[in-house]
Amino acid sequence: MRQVIVAGNWKMNASKETVNTLVMGILAGMADVKSKVIVCAPAPYMSQVEALITHSQLNLGAQDLNVNASGAFTGEVSADMIKDFGAQYVIVGHSERRSLYGETDDVVAHKVQVALDNGLTPLFCIGETLDERESGNMENVVSLQIQAVIDLVGIEAFKNIIIAYEPVWAIGTGVTATPQQAQDAHAFIRSMLAQNNADIAQTCSILYGGSMNPGNATELLGCEDIDGGLIGGASLKSDDFLQICKAG
Ligand code: PEP
User: Fold this and answer.
1) 103, 166, 219, 224: which one is catalytic?
2) Rounded distance, CA 54 to CA 135, Å?
3) What is the whole-number distance in angstroms between the Cα of residue 40 and the centre of ligand 1?
4) pLDDT at 1 over 80
């Protein structure tokens, strides 16, 4: 049985005050949460979150990493820096990184490799745009995104990778994939993993992301192949986020 995982992606939304309120609010409601819960904070706030979540069930993640270990890469964050703040997770290949910062499937695969090499668990994001879905290309796009990672790190590495299926048209739009659309995509992803290794396909967690909220979480998380959620907007309010964590 795959454990339900709920990860919050705060994106570029935080201040010292809101981080404090948000994390304290989540911690106050964690007692009856059975899911694994991860918060992915903006880099400048990771130290603050690390201090707040000590000895709790909350886990810390970063939102991106640079493939280099150190050096002249102004503004970038390395895997070692992420680990230095007690984080075990890192989002890789979020659609905003792909579309706004030109991250190709190959770049994303390289980042997955660097995360794994450094003992971080990548939350590896994949998903199609609206055009790609409407032209019948969802499976093709998602396959290429996954294949780039399999080609570089091998299928066995998926023991330590969490996949997040995030249809781009559902991210931050308030338009959620229907449970059937999401389940179909997740089943397709799992079948692709199974073609390479049946055991890995059964154990790999595949999260859904795209306007998940307290109103739709129970139905989405109830689908056979949906193992949790990557949550953007609704992860910024502790009550909403906790309701999603409890829905799993
Ligand atoms: C995301 O950014 O990964 C995401 C799923 O955002 P939202 O929940 O706001 O759609």
Assistant:
1) 166
2) 47
3) 12
4) no
Q: Is residue 94 annotated as a catalytic residue, yes or no?
A: yes
Residues 34-87: tens digit of each pLDDT: 999 999 999 999 999 999 999 999 999 999 999 999 999 999 999 999 999 999
CA 66 – CA 61 distance, rounded (Å): 14
Helix or strand or coil: residue 40? strand
Q: Which residues line ligand 1 (CB under 6 A)?
A: 9, 166, 171-172, 209-212, 230-234
Phi, psi at 71, each rounded to 5°: 120, -155
How deeply is 195 buried, as exposed, middle or buried, from its count of CB atoms within 10 A (0-12, 13-18, 19+)? exposed
DSSP string across 47-112: HHHHHHHTTSSEEEEES---SSSSSS-TT---HHHHHHTT--EEEES-HHHHHHS---HHHHHHHH
- Residue 128 CA, chain-centre distance (Å), reads 15
Average pLDDT (217-246) is 98
